[in-house]
Design goal:
The strands form two sheets. Strands 8-7-6-9-10-11-12 form a seven-stranded parallel beta sheet, sandwiched between helices. Strands 2-1-3-4-5 form a five-stranded parallel beta sheet, with helices on one face. It starts with a strand and ends in a 14-residue tail after the last helix. The chain is elongated and about 75 Å long. Helix 1 packs across helix 8 and helix 3 crosses helix 4. The chain contains eight helices and twelve strands. 26% of the residues lie in helices and 17% in strands.
Amino acid sequence: MKVLHQIRETLATRIAEAEPAIELVAIPLAGELPGGLEAEVLLTYPWASPNLDRVLARGVRWIHALGTGVDAFPFDLLTDQTLTCSRGGSAIPISEWVLATMLAFEKQLPESWIHGVPAAGWSRAALGTVHGKTLGLVGLGGIATAVAQRALPFGMLVRAYRRSAARSPIAGVEVLGSLRELVAVSDHVVIAASSTAATHHLFNRDLFAAIKPGAHLVNIARGALVDQDALRTALDAGRIAMASLDAVEPEPLPDGHWLYTHRRVRLSPHISWSMPGAAELLIQPFIDNLRRYQTGAPLTGVVNRDAGY
């Protein structure tokens, strides 16, 4: 079977090692394509390459987007093809990043470190704890599930809100009936939902008014889920004690943006996914699906184009 790809050769090599019988054909991200080239499968990035419309016209039936989110993918170019993504592929590093930010907030890191001079109150502090605190997960997909799995052993009470009525896949995680109910009881609120038209500015002035005073907000999803003007108001009022943001809008932020300097903001340049072998974690779902495709088994990570994720 032939697979067209627009990814780095180092990642394509990983596929060739796992499935040596597959013919991998590298094609450019822009410009003309080789004449007579056709294939049913395309492996590409989760955004539009300049020549994607011409690639799809080469008999492509299944497209895999090498990423966990597809909010930048051009759905309008699709007809009846199947689109999948590496949903949950970055769950390990991102969930670790979330735990790190919650612990840093409670343990006052790095501001509690001392540098060069003795602290005024040696051996005295008023640090917090994650033990017994309520973690509110907005979304309960692969990443949020991985966060829950790591938070429960710390003694956190884990609650979640999801669009579907499905039960939690993790024992000990209670699914609440509304987002307002979730944020009202959560000490740490983690945004892990997909970015769609329905979730645009999901966190707005109304929701921030309902959030538990002194809450810690963590966003590892997309910046579009948060109304940043409303966030600034909530931060200035102390309604939100801290916002740890790995996703903002736009990316990168322009010079002089208020998020760079706000005392209640910890800003990260969209790197929560990073760890040794991070790219291989995204490739593996495609390899698994490639085996399924060849045997006619249902694919995983199928994108619902109507829902946008």
